[in-house]
Specification:
The chain has 15 helices and four strands. The chain is mainly α.
Length: 391
């Protein structure tokens, strides 16, 4: 079976044209990540270059553990700068005594790079404590009324947010951009559309299906070998793209020292029920993306089975992508369990503390969605097998 899987893998995915397309897409991904860096980073060459120099000088002083002394020291620097900016009397020309270019760029620098982020980190403890307090009030309310499910749901929320705090200040710019980056997923979809279209339909066009029926391997083993080879290629490509994205973001943005910081230290993830670190959060989103790709992969293979020409399989693959994206944009609440796009853009499954009622017990929706995804993949594998037998 392993030799048969390797044969199918080499036949459909380890071809010179597939390798060339994969390498070309990696280059396109590199250019896109660099453009994201240029557009969004405060330290890119398209923005004030002085920011980077000043940040490298001050970050070792104010980074790490958040203390009252550090906050007061920052405020002593920032307040005079802020008052000068508010008075609108300072010159807009370059000032040799400024930290960056002039007093106006200094104000932007300290506000964006230190004060706003440090304020978010310092006040998150109070924010989490408020959520715990409200959850406990809701627990008492629902307990009196005998609503067991709502009581358990609020108990889960209280436990998840209890004792949360952000003790250290780190540069999270890299993860802020990395966790919201989806372009490489589009490139993977393009690669899978091309790779999966011919997996089954090629035997139909060359009439090899008549030989497969009488082969020693049998139709069942041949079908599974084709499916496993497609999954193997998908997982290899998914892992390589995830590693490549992480490497390039860390190369351009820096800030890898924040990998151990809690995921909720990133703005937008403050309501997540997960207590993972940023690095673990990226790994989880990578798993979500590969899961969504597996769902698309089986859809593409199913269309390859149902088509008699490769061009028809191509068109059906693109139509299925458009349908899933449209459903995700317009009917998200009812489609996120079965929609592969929900997993490819997996952060939306964990941004909020959402639960589903499973026999009276609150189960996080990302777990329910994962279970549904596995069932759909297995169902598509079985449906493809039934179609394969009838060919």
């Amino acid at each position: 079976m392993r030799r048969l899987v390797y044969y199918e893998f080499r036949k459909h995915f380890l071809t010179p044209i597939m390798v060339s397309i994969f390498l070309a897409l990696l280059m396109v991904d590199t250019l896109k990540i660099y453009s994201v860096y240029q557009e969004s980073s405060l330290f890119s060459s398209s923005n004030l270059a002085e920011f980077k120099e000043a940040y490298e000088e001050l970050y070792p002083v104010y980074g790490g553990e958040i203390t009252v002394e550090k906050i007061n020291s920052l405020l002593e620097i920032y307040r005079p700068i802020y008052e000068t900016v508010q008075s609108q009397t300072a010159s807009t020309k370059e000032d040799e005594n400024s930290y960056t270019y002039n007093v106006y760029s200094d104000e932007l620098f300290f506000r964006k790079c230190f004060l706003e982020e440090m304020e978010y980190d310092y006040t998150y403890r109070s924010y989490a404590a408020e959520i715990v307090s409200e959850a406990r009030k809701n627990m008492d309310f629902y307990k009196e009324r005998g609503n067991v499910y709502e009581y358990r749901k609020n108990l889960c929320v209280a436990r998840a947010f209890y004792g949360r705090e952000i003790k250290d200040f780190y540069n999270t710019e890299m993860y802020q951009s990395l966790l919201y980056y989806d372009f490489s997923s589009i490139l993977m979809l393009m690669l899978m559309v091309y790779g999966c279209a011919s997996v089954f339909v090629k035997e139909e066009e060359t009439e090899m299906k008549y030989i497969i029926r009488t082969s020693q391997s049998g139709r069942g083993r041949t079908y599974l070998a084709k499916v496993f080879s497609a999954f193997l290629f998908l997982m290899v490509a998914g892992v390589l793209f995830s590693i490549w994205d992480y490497f390039l973001f860390s190369l351009f943005f820096g800030g890898t020292e924040s990998a151990a910081s809690p995921l909720y230290a990133i703005r937008g993830f403050q309501d997540t029920i997960l207590t993972l670190s940023m690095g673990q959060g990226y790994l989880l989103l990578s798993v979500f993306r590969i899961t969504g790709m597996c769902m698309f992969c089986m859809i593409f293979l199913f269309f390859s089975l149902a088509s008699r020409r490769i061009m028809a399989a191509f068109l059906l693959n693109f139509v299925s992508i458009m349908v899933c994206i449209s459903a995700y944009d317009h009917i998200y609440n009812s489609s996120h369990f079965w929609n592969p796009v929900s997993f490819i853009s997996g952060r939306n499954l964990i941004l909020r503390s959402e639960f589903s009622n499973l026999a009276g017990y609150p189960v996080p929706k990302y777990m329910i969605a994962g279970g549904v995804a596995v069932c759909l993949i297995l169902g598509l594998v079985y449906a493809g097998w039934m179609l394969w037998k009838r060919r």
